[in-house]
Amino acid sequence: MNGIRQEPGRDFDRLGGELVFRRQLAQEGRLGPLRWLSIFLGVAGTYRRHETVDVVYEAGGRRTVASLTPS
Hints:
Blueprint: E1 12-15, E2 18-21, H1 33-40, E3 53-59, E4 62-68
Antiparallel strand pairs: 1-2, 3-4
């Protein structure tokens, strides 16, 4: 998560086909018109937490990476 290796049983559990993390993952919410305007004008950016999960697995003998969006 965000480039930091997560360990099964410590950071997350696998329940069936789902990964369940032991802490809440933060997602940046929708940006309002004022925030979009400030980004467009170069006055400010967006600095909210936005965590991503990249899962590395093997399928058919090939190493594959899937980027997941927490729900």
